[in-house]
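Side project, low priority. Logging it here so it doesn't get lost.
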Amino acid sequence: MSPHSPLLAFGPISPATPGPLYEQLILAVKREVVAGRLKPGDALPSLRGLAADLMVSLITVKRAYEELERDGVIYSRQGLGAFVAATGLDQVRDEKIKATDTALREAVASARAAGLADAEVKTMLQKIIEDGGGES
């Protein structure tokens, strides 16, 4: 990163990584918000600066910032830049809760389709939680 950019883990953003570059950047910003490295009111790097640091096009960064703003994670001030919204963490957290709910519902449906009883599914889930939830 350039000397004036905050040291944030936005990279690597790469064409070799699955998903469009702008989506990779969106996920990276959200990851930084959830991790607490970006807090409400914190300034994000400028469009041009971040594009240069990540070696992506200005259009890629602009699209990512626009989507983050539309989702309520960040807000922009003309001439000042982009900042983490006061509700940014809540927005990201709500998305993750919805995604988790969907994944769990799909897992339960899959388990039932495999003939597992609800008690067996609960036992499996409890063991996964106790084992650290599959985190590496």
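Brief comment: Confidence is low (pLDDT under 50) at residues 1-7.
Revisit when time allows.
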